[in-house]
Model the fold of this input.
Amino acid sequence: MSSLFPALADGPGERVALRFGERSLTYGALAGAAGALAARLRDAGRVAVWATPELETAVAVTGALLAGVPAVPLNPRSGGRELAHIVTDSAPDLVLTAPGAEVPAELGRLARIEVDACAVGTVPEERAGDTDPALVVYTSGTTGPPKGAVIPRRALATTLDALADAWQWTGDDVLVHGLPLFHVHGLVLGVLGPLRRGGAVRHLGRFGTEGVARELNDGATMLFGVPTMYHRIAEALPDEPELVKALAGARLLVSGSAALPVHDHERILAATGRRVIERYGMTETLMNTSVRADGPAGTGTVGVPLPGVELRLVEEDGTEVAGYDGETVGEIQVRGPNLFTEYLNRPDATAAAFTADGFFRTGDMAVRESDGGVRIVGRKATDLIKSGGYKIGAGEIENALLEHPGVREAAVTGEPDADLGERIVAWIVPADPGAPPSLEELAGHVARRLAPHKRPRVLHLLDALPRNDMGKIMKRALVADA
Done:
């Protein structure tokens, strides 16, 4: 196959490829450091990467990929039990860390290589094939221990090239983000994406609106973030003129990993004149859809299928949803070269994840608009509410609730109801804890915007919603604590 990183072999050697805070590497220096590491990894079967938000993490993963050795990114915030499971399940030969990094006892038995970002070596000829594993990325484990999704090299290349097409992404782009580096968004899109294009990435280390403004006003062209980050940006815009200027001058603003509330879309657009583009993907599929940079705005949708991705919506009985009416809810199923190959050591789970004709069952529920755009309404397990004979997606109710001035954060779940089957439950963080909105007020607000059968019947007031590292609301925790 062709090289994953052609710029490392023949690109602009003095151009900056990576910058983390005050530290940076040119393409020439990255080629030397990653090439030297690749030579040390050549005989390894699989390597773990202690994925701290540092320059060495990017060098470690790049070096492993150059060596044709699968990398297992490890979340430094993982608990001991989860980390022990991942290490036992993936059985890496060694762990790659930044120099002097403190690692937990669960990694103590592994041989360790401290990555030298100043090492000098040569980029090896890439011997691995398209279907060979590139990464083993562990899922969130909401229904049991995390599963290791084996992502082949072809999936990396396919997704990144499809996004280049959708976003007009080139080597002239400079990406800024502050995402963690142990998952698809921050690592594959946020680091490997710029390197494949021959562009640059500036990692903030820790997300902050001042850092975003500084980098975008200093030549960065793209921003990647999750909804929590864009919400903080929207909140800060009225008081930070440099942030307004920065976003207004950016070429592309991308949000992913969860739905961006319409209210935040509208506030950012009103203040900066720039729309935020959404895309949709999963650990197992990498990217499936995106709003195109040269297409319609599509606020509230995650765009259209990317080149090479087949996507369909399926009813509960397995029949495909016919037509795009913007109303009929179905489960998203996808097929294409962007998919993972298996769950490591889990043939049963792998078989259950695919249909007989090779489509992956995502578990995400959506509708398709008349233009083919996909609008996610929630997860099948936690966000599809069957109430009074209707199938209702929690996402659209959450967006409606967030339009109420008395609501700062919102989540929606269902709970058993003898009459309706399930009733809609709203979990609200009020804008003013001293004067929270009432259930009657919120129910009327939702009924006027959507439909009466979509109004909440139960209200819980909270100080904060439980969220994971990616800013996604952990609804299972809400229901468990109810």
